[in-house]
């Protein structure tokens, strides 16, 4: 089911162009904007009297109703691991001004209410710039920007306060009702049903200071984030409230200041140590083939931003803060720590090592880690060109001349600071937030700081490390014995996880292109690293590589590890299901069992940086 959901999720905006019409997503709410085409869409929920009704009023065949029910049950079961995994997590969600001012906000808030009911804690940061500009235009005033910031004069401040107030009240009103009571009555009258409305908390959580005069420009009442009231936010989250943080900050002098929405969101995510930052925008990120890019490592995002530094002020500012902090960090490092920070003599280009994808086990790039300190701001007040935090906006973002590069820069910045995942999701697509969180590959773009970290194709110098890991498993009979010669010949099919120069895990993928299948073999993790998810990471990497090769299924032979693979979607099959050329080489005396997994037909998100279309 997740495969059909992911396959149905398609493009809605180019990396450069935004706001194009988007195809429908399955399971979209009936109240959402009509879609061009629908696949496997459930009818709107309602009261049923007798059988299910067809659009013309007739009763649908029982087979069709059963199929519909089967799809729902299948989706629910596949979503179960994600439901459990996300429960208790804290997500900061920044909703772009374009989405807030558009027709899709109701659906997004409905999904946030649903997710909150499943145990996810939310901090919402709504964008206001579209409504501020609209109010100024209605009053015969012109919005003014300098770089990434708005110049907030008295007229702009009045419009900003009005827009922020309206948006806050709208969000509170939309979240207050909770789920429809009509759908619950068939389960009996229960007083608890009347207590399930979402509690929304807002207040003066944001401390700010005037931006002042920078570069000869007086920014007026524009503020920079100085303090997030973490204790009060956490207190309200623990009381099961959805917290709304306005971009209107309060200074120590009692002034109201207009802060940049993304600066507020990044501050919140870092200060409360959120599990995710989710950026809901009005489009998607595509690769050069027109496919939605599902995944980018922090290294890939960093490299992509650097390639655009000459065309984008925001990208240039990102590079500047990362490189400046890198210099300060390296200067302050004791020499004995050089190897721990990746400064081990290997060649570096912009901080990247010569290992594939630059993944050498470090937790940050160039030694830089974004940080937010309450009462001081970002990086002890030494942020971008002496500014606080990471703001995106201004004419560059409004024109979308560089597409969603602004959001990508904010995502990479926050990942540096310790937020493990940032998702850029198209809010104009019905149900996109649910699909992003409850299907394996999602429908947006995920930027991650640790996924596949250190994972690469094996090299000849890895032979001894691989041998060290698989030898105990060969001795116990779990793996087939391989001579050094056989291992060397198969080395180009091996994938390894490298941590600080040591191989801690390995796996092999042997493709059978004629059969569009691949054999998974020799999955092994060093004893000291077991129980940390390395095996899952390797298998996921193998599956994505198989998809990139055009393979449709994976198979394996095992004697003692069947349970592990069954939990990950493999099902027992007959020997006849394997490619004929492989069957001829099977040692039947081992009595191996055969398992197969069909891969999900979805877009491949892990694409080299220079493969992005910057149109």
UniProtKB/TrEMBL annotation:
Database matches in Pfam families? AA_kinase, Acetyltransf_1
Annotated GO molecular function terms are:
L-glutamate N-acetyltransferase activity
Keyword Transferase attributed: yes
Choose any GO biological process term that the UniProt entry carries and state it: L-arginine biosynthetic process
Pathway, per record: Amino-acid biosynthesis; L-arginine biosynthesis; N(2)-acetyl-L-ornithine from L-glutamate: step 1/4
Looking at the record, the residues that make up the N-acetyltransferase domain are: 453-601
What Gene3D superfamilies does the entry give? 3.40.630.30, Acetylglutamate kinase-like
**What InterPro entries does the record point to?**
AceGlu_kinase-like_sf (IPR036393), Acyl_CoA_acyltransferase (IPR016181), Asp/Glu/Uridylate_kinase (IPR001048), GNAT_dom (IPR000182), NAGS_kin (IPR033719), NH2A_AcTrfase (IPR010167)
Do the record's keywords include Secreted? no
Q: Which reaction does it catalyse?
A: L-glutamate + acetyl-CoA = N-acetyl-L-glutamate + CoA + H(+)
The protein's Enzyme Commission number: 2.3.1.1
Q: Which GO terms describe its cellular component?
A: cytoplasm
Q: Which UniProt keywords apply?
A: Acyltransferase, Amino-acid biosynthesis, Arginine biosynthesis, Transferase
Concerning NCBIfam families, the annotation shows: N-Ac-Glu-synth (TIGR01890)
What family name appears in the similarity comment?
Belongs to the acetyltransferase family. ArgA subfamily.
The name this protein goes by in its record: amino-acid N-acetyltransferase
Q: Which organism is it from?
A: Panicum miliaceum (Proso millet)
């Amino acid at each position: 089911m997740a495969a059909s959901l992911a396959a149905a999720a398609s493009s809605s905006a180019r990396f450069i162009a935004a706001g194009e019409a988007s195809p429908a997503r399955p399971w979209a709410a009936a109240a959402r904007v009509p879609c061009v085409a629908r696949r496997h869409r459930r009818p709107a929920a309602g009261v049923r009297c007798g059988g299910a009704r067809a659009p013309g009023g007739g009763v649908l065949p029982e087979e069709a109703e059963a199929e519909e029910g089967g799809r729902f049950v299948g989706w629910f079961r596949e979503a179960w691991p994600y439901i459990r995994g996300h429960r208790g997590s804290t997500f900061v969600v920044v909703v772009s001004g374009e989405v807030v001012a558009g027709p899709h906000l109701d659906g997004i808030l409905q999904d946030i209410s649903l997710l909150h009911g499943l145990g996810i804690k939310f901090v919402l940061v709504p964008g206001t710039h579209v409504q501020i500009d609209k109010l100024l235009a209605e009053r015969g005033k012109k919005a003014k920007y300098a770089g990434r910031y708005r110049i907030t004069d008295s007229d702009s401040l009045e419009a900003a306060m009005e827009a922020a107030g309206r948006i806050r009240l709208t969000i509170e009103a939309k979240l207050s009702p909770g789920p429809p009571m009509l759908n619950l009555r068939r389960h009996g009258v229960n007083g608890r049903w009347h207590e399930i409305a979402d509690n929304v908390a807002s207040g003066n959580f944001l401390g700010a200071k005037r931006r002042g005069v920078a570069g000869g420009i007086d920014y007026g009442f524009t503020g920079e984030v100085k303090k997030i009231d973490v204790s009060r936010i956490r207190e309200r989250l623990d009381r099961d409230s959805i917290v709304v943080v306005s971009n209107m900050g309060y200074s120590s002098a009692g002034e109201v200041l207009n802060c940049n929405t993304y600066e507020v969101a990044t501050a919140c995510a870092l200060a409360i140590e959120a599990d995710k930052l989710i950026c809901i925008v009005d489009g998607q990120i595509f690769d050069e083939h027109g496919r939605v890019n599902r995944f980018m490592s922090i290294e890939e995002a960093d490299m992509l931003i650097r390639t655009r530094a000459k065309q984008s002020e925001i990208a240039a500012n990102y590079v500047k803060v990362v490189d400046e902090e890198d210099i300060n960090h390296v200067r302050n490092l004791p020499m004995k720590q050089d190897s721990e920070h990746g400064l081990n003599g290997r060649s570096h280009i912009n901080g990247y090592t010569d290992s594939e994808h630059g993944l050498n086990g470090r937790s940050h790039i160039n030694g830089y880690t974004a940080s937010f300190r309450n009462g001081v701001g970002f990086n002890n007040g030494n942020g971008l060109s002496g500014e606080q935090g990471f703001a995106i906006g201004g004419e560059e973002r409004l024109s979308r001349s560089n597409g969603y590069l602004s959001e990508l820069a904010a995502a990479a910045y926050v990942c540096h600071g310790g937020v493990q995942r940032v998702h850029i999701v198209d809010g104009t697509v019905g149900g996109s937030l649910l699909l992003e969180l409850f299907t394996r590959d999602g429908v947006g773009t995920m930027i991650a700081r640790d996924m596949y970290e250190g994972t690469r194709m094996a090299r000849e110098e890895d032979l001894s490390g691989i041998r060290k890991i698989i030898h105990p498993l060969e001795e116990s009979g779990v793996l087939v014995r391989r001579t050094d010669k056989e291992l060397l010949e198969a080395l180009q099919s091996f994938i390894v996880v490298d941590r600080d120069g040591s191989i801690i895990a390995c796996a092999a993928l042997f493709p059978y292109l004629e059969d569009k299948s691949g054999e998974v073999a020799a999955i092994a993790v060093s004893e000291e690293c077991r129980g940390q998810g390395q095996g899952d990471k390797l298998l996921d990497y193998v599956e994505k590589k198989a998809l990139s090769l055009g393979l449709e299924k994976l198979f394996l032979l095992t004697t003692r590890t069947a349970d592990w693979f069954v939990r990950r979607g493999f099902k027992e099959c007959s020997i006849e299901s394997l490619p004929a050329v492989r069957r001829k080489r099977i040692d039947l005396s081992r009595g191996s069992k055969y398992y197969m997994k069909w891969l999900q037909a979805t877009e491949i998100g892990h694409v080299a940086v220079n493969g992005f279309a910057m149109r």
